[in-house]
């Protein structure tokens, strides 16, 4: 059966994210990008399926692993590479770097390097949306490690208490830096979500952008009718080291087998026909964006004290 237009579009966005990050890997040794980078290779489908399900005006908040959400929200690539290179043409004039990408015009309100610190911001936005009856839904994407932070639970409680229009999305790669989830958490994520009264769904096939989209869309539709917060857990796999551009399968805290099993299902690796049809255009877009970003100058001293208050 031929693929749908939606499949092709989500494949394209997922591949764009992957190739952007593979370009970052190529550029990194040159030191043109001095910001630390947390890559989403392997996890792209979560951002792509979710963001496609959001309506214009909806908002999304994420973590330092921010490239995928930025691209999935439609962020400009030249402004992204310029931001990573600390140039004036960056989306935040070079002040934010990789860990704090934002693209408010596309709904991405911010990303934070401090684990779980964006969750209360998302809940506050959802409170504003409810008070203003704006009809907006707020999506809040965080890693499994966020669930070990007190502020996550304070935020879940408040969102449940006030029945706010927020979708909590746990991007569960089962790792926090080098610690596996079974060595960190004494609870099941489902039991935790249900304890707050959140309707809970889990997607095991986190590489499947169509499934992420279907489930996100149904959940977001429900939230928009006023049923309160919902919780979505998506299992995924981080391909690269926690921070940086290398592979770390040799370090000893995880094995390659689960990653290899994931690769065997990853549409970006398995669907060669769609890949081949899109790759030249995507790579040309990235090459042009990097060249334009490099042509942007460094910020002048006058920028030091602007936009920082
Ligand atoms: C409050 C806080 N504590 C510790 C850290 C150091 N730290 C950075 S990333 C990270 C792991 C987070 O894991 P997870 O939430 O699962 O996200 P992932 O990196 O897997 O996407 C930690 C502990 C931090 N940035 N902020
Ligand atoms: Mg994690």
Structure notes:
By secondary structure, this protein is α/β, with parallel strands linked by helices. It has one domain: Rossmann fold. The chain is built from 11 helices and 8 strands. The protein has helices at 5-27, 44-53, 67-72, 77-84, 119-131, 150-162, 189-195, 209-224, 257-263, 267-270, 272-294; strands at residues 59-63, 108-112, 138-143, 166-172, 175-176, 179-180, 200-203, 230-235. The chain has a 6-stranded parallel beta sheet, with helices on both faces. Strands 5-6 form a two-stranded antiparallel sheet. Strand 3 (138-143), helix 6 and strand 4 form a beta-alpha-beta unit. The longest helix is centred in the first third of the chain and has 23 residues, at 5-27. It is globular, with a radius of gyration of 19 Å. The mean pLDDT is 97. Magnesium ion (MG) binds next to strand 5.
Helix content percent band: 40-55%
In the CATH scheme, the class would be: Alpha Beta
Strand order of the largest sheet: 2-1-3-4-8-7
Domain count, please report it: 1
Distance between the termini: 54 Å
Going by helix content, strand content and strand pairing, the class is alpha/beta
> pLDDT below 50 for ≥5 consecutive residues: which ranges?
none
Rg, Cα atoms, Å: 19 Å
The percentage of residues in β strands lies in 5-15%
Global mean pLDDT = 97
Helix count equals 11
Could you tell me the CATH topology label.
Rossmann fold
Q: Determine the CATH superfamily.
A: Thiamin diphosphate (ThDP)-binding fold, Pyr/PP domains
Largest sheet: 6 strands, parallel
Shape: globular
The succession of helices and strands, N to C, reads: HHEHHEHEHEEEHEHEHHH
């Amino acid at each position: 059966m031929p693929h749908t237009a939606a499949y092709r579009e989500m494949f394209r966005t997922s591949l764009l994210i992957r190739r952007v990050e593979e370009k970052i890997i190529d550029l990194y040794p040159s030191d043109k990008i001095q910001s630390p980078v947390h890559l989403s290779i392997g996890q792209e489908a979560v951002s792509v399926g979710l963001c496609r399900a959001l309506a214009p005006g909806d908002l999304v908040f994420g973590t330092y692993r921010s490239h995928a959400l930025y691209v999935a929200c439609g962020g400009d690539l030249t402004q992204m590479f310029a931001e990573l290179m600390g140039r004036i043409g960056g989306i935040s004039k070079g002040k934010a770097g990789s860990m704090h990408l934002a693209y408010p015009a596309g709904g991405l309100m911010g990303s934070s390097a401090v684990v779980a610190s964006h969750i209360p911001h998302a809940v506050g936005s959802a409170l504003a949306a409810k008070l203003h009856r704006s009809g907006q839904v707020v999506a809040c994407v965080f890693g499994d490690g966020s669930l070990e932070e007190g502020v996550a639970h304070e935020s879940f409680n408040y969102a449940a208490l006030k029945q706010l229009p927020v979708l909590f999305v746990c991007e569960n790669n089962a790792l926090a830096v080098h610690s596996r989830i079974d060595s960190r958490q004494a609870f099941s994520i489902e039991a935790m979500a249900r304890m707050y009264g959140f309707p809970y769904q889990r997607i095991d096939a986190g590489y499947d952008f169509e499934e992420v989209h279907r489930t996100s869309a149904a959940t977001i539709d429900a939230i928009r009718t006023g049923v309160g917060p919902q919780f979505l857990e998506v299992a995924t796999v981080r391909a690269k080291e926690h921070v940086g551009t290398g592979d770390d399968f040799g370090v000893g805290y995880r094995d390659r087998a689960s990653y290899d099993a994931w690769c065997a299902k990853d549409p970006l690796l398995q669907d060669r026909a769609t890949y081949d049809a899109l790759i030249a255009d995507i790579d040309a877009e990235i090459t042009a964006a990097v060249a334009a970003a490099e042509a942007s100058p460094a910020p002048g001293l006058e920028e030091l004290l602007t936009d920082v208050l």
